[in-house]
Amino acid sequence: MAYQRRWRKTNRTLTMEETGEEPPTSAVLLDHCHFSQIIFNSVEKFYIPGGDITCHYTLTQHFIPRRKDWVGIFRVGWKTTREYYTFMWAALPADLHSKSSLQQQVQFKAYYLPKDDEYYQFCYVDQDGVVRGASVPFQFRPESEEDILVVTTQGEVEEIEQLNKELRQQNQELKDNCLSLQKQNSDMHAELQKVQDLQEKLESLTDINKKLEQKVSVLNEENEGLKVQKGCWETELLQLKVQNQNVSSENEKMGIRLRATLDHLDKLEAQISVREKEMEKLTQGDRDKIEQLERLKKENEQLLLSLTKQREHQQKLEHTVEDMKQKDTTANRKQQEFTGPRDKKAPVEKQLVQEVERLKSKVEAGRACFIEKYKECQRLHKQIRQLKAAVLNQISDLMKRLDESKFFYQELQKEKTRVEGEKDLLQKENERLLCYVCNDSGSNLLSNPIPVQEALEENTGLVFGNPYAAAQDIQYIPILPSIKKCPICHGVFPDDVEENVFEQHLQTHILDCPFCDEVFSEAERQVYDDHVFCHSL
Questions:
Q1: Which of 78, 123, 336, 347 has the most CB atoms less than 10 A away?
Q2: How far does Cα 96 stand from its chain's mean position?
Q3: Which of 84, 118, 107 is nearest to 12 (CA)?
Q4: Which of 93, 95, 82, 92 is nearest to 123 (CA)?
Q5: CA pair distance 464, 237, nearest whole angstrom
């Protein structure tokens, strides 16, 4: 039973894949179904498995078909429409009023039909999942002899027996012929397989032969190339022997130059150490000067503070003078208005004049003090700028000398490394050539020697090039490019840079006073601001 359920579920899945959707069903029991609205016609008692079957049915006048109606095959004993085995959608008639449209049919494919001999029946299910008609039960089984009734005469029986006997004989002969043909066929297949194997072997041998011919042609070409290369090697050997002698002498010269370079490097290192010590001393002096500049800056700030106070006091005095002038004007106006006795106003006027004179003397004294302080501040600013300029010049000179020394030292180190590498390469090549000459001393490569000068003249170039051709062009000391360095930001410029470019770069570090000809560096921003402020007083 479980096997049959699994089989039904599988068929349902296949039908859904074919139709694209599942039919509408319901849990309505048999008591609520109407089986008389659809009438199934020409239903057989059994259907032979392996073939498609056609289901014929008639629509009654009391039934109206809809688009989602379907015809299913149900196993006898079903309870609800969900227990269908397979289904097909029912065709919707074009005209319900014609009799031909009431006769409908659906065809079930053999693949989706049951494979057991249980009893099944057709059921018409509407769009709401309610059964509207059911057929008589039927089976899926092969046709048996019990279902056939044949009536024959005695003569026909004898003829049939004689015909069966002849047919059996013919069948036996055909079987014998079939066996012999099968044997011949197997023999032919074996021979054909052997022929195919031989043909495959022949093709593989043909491919191998072609590859060997190609290899032979390639080897012949390589042999010709080796012969040509052998002649080149013989010429090269002669050249290398001559070059070996030159290299030996050049090696000795390079050793002398290397020792001289090393001595020069030692001297440069000593000079660099001395300059580093001088640099340390200058750095210490620079720090002392910076401390002195800091002290001067603090004094400058105090002077500016005092100048600010003097300016405030001067403004107060000016306000007092203005008040006194207004009072004097008021007194003169009152003197003109009133014509009183002269002896009463004289003391007041005298007192006002004295007060004015006293205030004027205070203003003159404050102005003289302010001018003196301003001159002192200008003198201090000038000293600070001179000290900074001197320190910056010394630092820039020392940094330039140090950079040039470092650059020169690096170039010498590179030259030293290159010379040592060339020396090692020459020694290795010399050893290789000596070994090569010793190994080939018994060969007949030099049976027909070529003059050295002719070999050098005829050879247009070695096969692998001459690694020592540039050895004679080595200079003792490289020409070091001179450089320019900014004394403020220490930026490095080549010596061939345009002068206006270098001056524009320096101008970016310089601050010009808009009131006078004083010049300040970018590091003296505070001093520059104080100087401009003094001009505004």
A1: 123
A2: 71
A3: 84
A4: 82
A5: 12
> Are 405 and 194 a contacting pair, CB within 8 Å?
no
**Lookup: tokens for 272:** 């660099």
The contacts of residue 188 (CB under 8 Å, 6+ apart) are none
| CA atoms of 383 and 393, how far apart (whole Å) | 15
**DSSP readout, 13-66?**
HHHHHHHSSPPP-----GGG--TBSEEEES--SEE-TTS-EEEEEEE-TT----
Q: Which structure tokens are listed for 131?
A: 């059964």
**Upper half-sphere CA count for residue 228 (Cβ side, 13 Å):** 7
Paired with 133 in beta bridges are 36, 124
- Going by C-alpha positions, the residue among 111, 138, 110, 109 that lies closest to residue 122 is 138
Closest CA to 235 of 440, 462, 467, 468: 462
DSSP 476: S
How many angstroms separate the Cα of 347 from the Cα of each of 230, 259, 327, 344? 135, 106, 15, 7
Tokens describing residue 160:
């049939």
Dihedral sign computed on CA atoms, order 373, 375, 376, 380: positive
Tell me the average confidence (pLDDT) per consecutive run of 10 residues in the chain, 537 residues long: 35 42 73 79 91 92 90 93 93 78 90 92 93 93 65 76 88 89 89 90 91 90 87 84 80 80 79 80 79 79 79 78 78 67 59 78 78 78 78 77 79 83 83 73 47 44 49 43 67 72 78 81 80 79
The dihedral built from the CA positions of residue 264, 270, 272 and 274, taken in this order, carries a sign that is: negative
Helix axes 342-439, 154-337, angle to 10 degrees: 140
DSSP collapsed to 3 states, 459-474 = CCCCCCCCCCCCHHHC
Phi, psi values for residue 222, rounded to 5°: -65, -35
Q: Which residue has the tokens 């006194």?
A: 324
Indicate the pTM of the whole model.
Answer: 0.29
Is 134 within 8 Å of 43 (Cβ atoms)?
Answer: no
